[in-house]
Amino acid sequence: MTYMYVRHRVADFDQWLRVFESHGEAQAESGLRDPQVLREASDPNIVVVFFRVEDLATVRAFIETPEAEKGKVDSGVIGDPEGFFLEEI
């Protein structure tokens, strides 16, 4: 099983969450499943998201689209997100 981990700072968590939730259908279509959203205890504007990845190639293509970049901008992501894929052992 493959997972995607993403960590980023946002300008406003509530704004970020609204945009994130509005992209649920696009996430699902790209093969991202079962999102888990967490916030750092010491800074609520640092967000971590885990997804189960259905198809790695499809997800990689999705995160490179202009729509994904627009979502980062619209949601108030600050800087470049930290992200990587994990394999279950």
Question: What does this protein structure show overall?
Answer:
With 89 residues, the protein is α+β, with helices and mostly antiparallel strands. The protein has one domain: Alpha-Beta Plaits (2-Layer Sandwich), CATH 3.30.70.100. Helix content is 38%, strand content 40%. The chain contains 4 helices and 4 strands; from the N terminus they run βααββααβ. A 4-stranded antiparallel beta sheet has the order 2-3-1-4. A hairpin with a 6-residue loop joins strand 2 and strand 3 (46-53). The longest helix has 10 residues, at 13-22. The termini are close together.
Uncertain stretches of 5 or more adjacent residues: none
* General shape: globular
The name of the CATH architecture is 2-Layer Sandwich
What composes the largest sheet? 4 strands, antiparallel
Q: Using the coordinates above, name the CATH class.
A: Alpha Beta
- Radius of gyration over alpha carbons? 12 Å
Helix and strand sequence: EHHEEHHE
Helix content: 25-40%
How many domains is the backbone divided into?
1
Q: Structural class of the helices, strands and pairings?
A: alpha+beta
Number of helices: 4
Biggest sheet, strands in spatial order?
2-3-1-4
Percent strand equals 35-45%
Average pLDDT reading: 94
CATH third-tier fold name: Alpha-Beta Plaits
Number of strands: 4
Q: Terminal Cα separation, in Å?
A: 8 Å
